[in-house]
Design a protein that fits this description.
mainly alpha
Length: about 350
């Protein structure tokens, strides 16, 4: 959308066209009032018009003026259609035509007046455009502005990236809400990913200091890692995308979900020799109750009317629930399978 939509591509050509049309339009006159329309006279007039248009098309073909042949043929076909309509018209339809004649004459007069006014005016230029258009499409220094409108939804990341790329191909200095939003969202998500990676590394280092061994650290981290993977799979199945509202769920899940694996490994170290059943009897119940209460608290957000809060609650519910299952089902079975704990 630009001021070029309201300006002729060639001012000189537009002025020459006006001078060409002026002697054609000025002699045209319209009757003062309408006359009664008769089917026989209308039919004869349409027959003469169709014949004249057919002869004109033949003459244009013989003269080699091919650019006017198709318009003349279309006009001849239209005249033929009107002739068939006039022949088949009954008295009631002819009466309707006579009733509409005054309105048709008034429309024709208005069109001729508008056409003559246009012929008496000069072609539009950037300087004589209406004030409203100048305010929209020109800067205070006189530079032209253009507006690019996306065909897709700018809050859809692929569509936004495509629109931003197309805008910058038009003008590297293009600006506006979609471009600013794309840049700021990139900064936000980039900073979020860095923060999550840093948090995960710090969690792993703290576990290394606590367990003083790589094996127990990896086992304690396993429920969290598997829980996050399961959560993302469930989000894909349920059609829940990551957005600015629910991104904050990931660090929360890291902080809450890591507790389960840590408690299980500590309990195994403390009384693992007495079997996994005893470990789960003492620690599993506490993990289950703590996780369920957390899921209820966070999951209540999924009932919010705000779509952002609802998606945040759904992601937290899936994440904490996945960590609960992996820490109470997957991790104990792995420990028993690899012989680290008796059943």
């Amino acid at each position: 959308e630009s001021p070029l939509d309201f300006l002729p591509p060639d001012i000189d050509a537009a002025e020459r066209l006006i001078e060409t049309l002026r002697p054609i339009v000025e002699p045209v006159s319209l009757p003062e009032r309408t006359t009664t329309l008769e089917r026989e006279r209308l039919t004869a007039s349409l027959e003469r018009l169709e014949s004249a248009l057919a002869m004109s098309a033949d003459d244009a073909f013989s003269a080699g003026i091919v650019e006017v042949i198709e318009p003349l043929e279309r006009a001849r076909a239209a005249a033929e259609g009107c002739l068939e309509t006039a022949i088949d018209a009954d008295d009631e339809r002819v009466a309707d035509w006579n009733t509409a004649q005054p309105q048709l004459l008034e429309t024709a007069r208005h069109a001729m007046e508008q056409l003559r006014r246009n012929l008496d005016s000069s072609p539009p230029t950037p300087d004589n455009l209406p004030v409203e258009l100048r305010r929209r499409f020109f800067t205070r220094s006189g530079d032209m502005l253009a507006f690019l409108h996306p065909t897709g939804e700018i809050f859809d990341p692929p569509a936004l990236a495509e629109f931003v790329g197309a805008s910058r191909r038009v003008d590297p200095a293009a600006t506006g809400f979609p471009l600013v939003f794309h840049k700021m969202s990139g900064r936000i998500t980039g900073g979020f990913y860095r923060a999550v990676a840093l948090g995960a590394v710090l969690v792993a280092l703290i576990l290394m200091l606590d367990f003083r061994g790589l094996r127990d650290t990896a086992l304690a981290l396993l429920p969290l890692v598997m829980g996050v993977v399961w959560m993302m799979g469930a989000m894909r199945v349920l059609g829940i995308p990551f957005n600015f509202a629910n991104l904050v769920a990931v660090p929360l899940i890291i902080g809450v979900g890591i507790d389960n694996g840590v408690h299980v490994i500590h309990r195994v170290r403390f009384e693992g020799g007495q079997g996994m059943n005893l470990v789960l009897r003492h620690t599993g119940r506490a993990i289950l109750i703590a996780s369920l209460t957390t899921m209820i608290g966070f999951g209540s957000l999924a009932l919010a009317s705000h779509r952002g809060l609802a998606s945040l609650g759904a992601v937290l519910l899936l994440g904490v629930g996945s960590c609960l299952v992996t820490s109470t089902v997957v991790l104990p079975n792995l420990l028993v399978t690899f012989g680290l704990v008796e059943r």
